[in-house]
Prior knowledge:
Layout lengths: L4 H4 L36 E11 L22 E11 L12 E7 L14 E6 L2 E6 L10 E5 L17 H4 L6 E8 L4 E8 L18 E6 L11 E6 L14 H6 L43
Antiparallel strand pairs: 1-2, 1-10, 2-3, 3-4, 4-5, 5-6, 7-8, 8-9, 9-10
Amino acid sequence: MRETPAERHVYYTGGVHNDLGCLPPERCIYTRKPGEPTDPLYPQWWVSTWTMYRVFANYDTYPPPYASPPAGLTPADYQVSYGASYYDSTYVPKDRDGEGAMMEYYDKYCLPIFPSANNFSCAFVSLGNKAYFLRYADRPAGTPACCKFSPRNHPPRRDFIKHLPYDAARSAHLGGAIQAYAREVGPQKILFGYAFWRTPTSDDPVDPASVPYRHPQSFYFSGSPTDPPNAPIVSQNYDSFRAQRPDPRHTWDQVAQMCPAEPEWCCLFEGDCPDKQRGAKGLTDTPPGASWSDMNPDVRR
């Protein structure tokens, strides 16, 4: 069913980044039950640094969402790294293909959802519907600075949380101060979750013009359990979330600066590039269904 390179690079996201497996749209929208809180919204633009915890031990006993540092876990249970995210829902790309822009920058340790080593800096940039993967000076030898990640991977919409069910049990974490949302997809129970602080706060408490809203607390999910990267659970805990418009010169303009006119396709998941030799460019012999690329859009809940 995934015969062309473009088709092989469209991944099921439950409606968050594309509509694969979500037609009609209601198929991937969760109606809130009586007593559940209203849905928070992203600001129209925002920036935040975050601390990433790659958890490889005791995550069954202490599941996310986590405080910073994760309560119940010890430093021997996880690795700490850092990064930043940038978001602008009003952005329109030059080719008019979709809307919105988002960049996630991972410093020294890339997003550990791929079955390969992640000890290098990277960034994912979505410009409208198109998404790009950027590597920097510390990238593995033989890998490009830029590749096409997906032709259908737009930034989450401001109301993206409607694509996740409210999770009352996880909302009891952090003393009940959060609203948690989560899905587990497929027999592998691949986790995708998000938490917001329950009480609205303003970015600047002393500025009367700063309107309170529910700030995101963390984004938590299943990484690749292969070793490397040995990332059964990953949590990005926001440190400085604020409704500030990102500077394109330091974010999405990197795509034009680092990418050729026609970037090659990324080969990050097994099956992305079947014409390339297995094991090339960091690919590993990964069991079917063990990664985000193999999630089944026919399994909604």
